Amino acid sequence: MAEAHQAVAFQFTVTPEGVDFQLSREVLKHIYLSVIRSWKKRLIRIKNGILRGVYPGSPTSWLVVVMATAGSSYYNVDISMGLVYYIQRWLPEGRPYRTPYTRTLFSMAIFSTGVWMMGIFFFRQTLKLLLSYHGWMFELHGQTSHLTRVWAVCVRLLSGRRPMLYSFQTSLPKLPVPSVPATVHRYLESVEHLLDDEQYYRMETLAKEFEEKTAPRLQKYLVLKSWWATNYVSDWWEEYVYLRGRNPIVVNSNYYVMDLVLVKNTDVQAARLGNAVHAMITYRRKLDREEIKPVMALGLVPMCSYQMERMFNTTRIPGKDTDVLQHLPDSRHVAVYHKGRFFKVWLYEGSRLLKPRDLEMQFQRILDDPSPPQPGEERLAALTAGGRVEWAQARQAFFSSGKNKAALDAIERAAFFVALDEESHHYDPEDEASLSLYGKALLHGNCYNRWFDKSFTLISFKNGQLGLNTEHAWADAPIIGHLWEFVLGTDSFHLGYTETGHCLGKPNPVLPPPQRLQWDIPKQCQAVIESSYQVAKALADDVELYCFQFLPFGKGLIKKCRTSPDAFVQIALQLAHFRDRGKFCLTYEASMTRMFREGRTETVRSCTRESTAFVQAMVQGRHLVSPRGLVLATARPLRVRGQTYSSRPCFCPQNEDLQRLFRKAAEKHQNMYRLAMTGAGIDRHLFCLYVVSKYLGVESPFLAEVLSEPWRLSTSQIAQFQIRMFDPNKYPKHLGAGGGFGPVADDGYGVSYMIAGENTIFFHVSSKFSSSETNAQRFGNQIRQALLDIANLFQVPKADG
After folding, report:
1. d(CA 692, CA 698)
2. Is 472 a catalytic residue?
3. Which of 96, 297, 469, 744 lies in the 20 to 30 Å Cα band around 369?
4. How many helices (H) and strands (E) does the chain have?
């Protein structure tokens, strides 16, 4: 609270008797505690920097080396081979080396430190070399090679004990640059089945010309960049894909995350928000202290954690040509929106984080505040939902000085943004539309009750339901998912509520109320706000979102089919899309590259030759290599957990042929996913070559065409259980529904899905009403049926002859 009272901490008046000084001891105490907190935070960062810098070494290991050197000297064994004596000769005379004994000990300490640092360097380089091995990813389950077993033991030995969040950053390998011939070959393979003979021949000619004439020069510059850059993709991907985009980020870029949907902790809006905000700041404190454990694949291979650095205190600042991400080292408040008004809520009292009950009281004060919005204030946030150029110009013209700048700074310098909504949303299994309406509210709201530029907006509905709207440039979905799992787990199993639904404990009634932000918005600015609102509203109104819970089965049954759950769903999406549109299309699935330093994502082109062969066999019974031909097979109903689900009859090949085609498609998908994760993808390499060509002023028809191809089916699987806050088998209903995003192409679909356990899958399907070719609910129903048909395929007995 110190910042709010600095203006009155010190006062003086001049009287005939002299100058009268007045000091507020309470305010000075808060200022003192704030300074102490800041210095503590700096010291913690310095300490963590040192510990991170010497990992996997530690002060204990340094002491062991020093003692070993001293002990060997005691027994007249010179393990330094004369280096201690050499160092001793070069030490200056006088203090603090007055006695020979002191000089010898100091020389031993210097030698031991050198040996210790060399050991750390050796261990790090060896670990980096070991982490560059990805053969384990391509081995079949249960068929681990001796090489991989030895590799796993070595990684475990060199990984040290109790690593901090960023301990492995310098040990992670760099993302390798694939060879041009390999990338071009994989690209042509990914589109061969999507083009007719004439189109494929044309593309093959362009690719060959590019590979022979243009690519070698571009590749040299890209390899050169990979030598000095930490990651040859990430900085360009962030800048050119996200920050340079001039279109609105609402729907087009931002995505949403849902709350737990099958359980409810409280109906009290302010109480649920108080617990959530307290959990988030607790997480931020752990993040600052690097107390969060790094995410490890198989509990062994560390994932890059650099994206977590900008989770809090981060805002996307608009610019005329490009936006920038503003990240602050600390922030002591959150910005809150309610009924068209903006507030500033302090998170600390001196150096103490406010308790959940205190935060509940502060949010309830905002809910009870009857004051009306100021002119132009209600729809102000629509500026962040409109065009980026218009927002940048308005920011420069109307928010660069005075009270508008001060109020805008309060929002942009906040830890994150909070939206207190007046409506209620939840998932009612009896009302299928409820989940879709909930998703729409999170994706765009009313276009002016979210600050879309903040790293994330925490949304609180009237009935206590929560959700997130997240800006995409600073990080990818698994990062915010890690935070969200912590918040939901902490809220449910650590903080808790009273019987009446309020936060535990007693509030501090003397806390100053939230600070109302003051604006002076002229008529010209109000016109810009209205224009941005109309642009954003048109985008939002055009989005058709269909969210549903698939109940017949989940990961449990898919595993019985002896295939990857992700491959199962992706092939089902191909079958559903073909039934919906009557054709195949270029399909995007996001894969992560976080096994490399500062890695983000890579594209898996899920529509493969193998998946199309399976789909055609399922739908039309064609393109089969089967000596026995076709039979008339009527699929029997699928029975799961005591319920019967119908599966449509179709004229199809025998089941063993369909299963063979399916497994071939699934294996192909898994192999492509592994290649993408290990740096051998297609699209990021071609994207970077395209950027280099623009820098050099080189025109490439091949790259221009590849980069302009539309993704009419954009998909993403949502990560879950990245941290274990509770046992999902013991609490099966503590499931989030995942999240979603808008369609990438005007005539395409956006599909996100979360395989939420053994018995259920959540889907989020988006499209545009303005397209006559797409319908989100129709496609969702096709996904349902495709999943049932494929599952039923593995239960139909083999036909005779």
Report:
1. 8
2. yes
3. 469
4. 24, 26
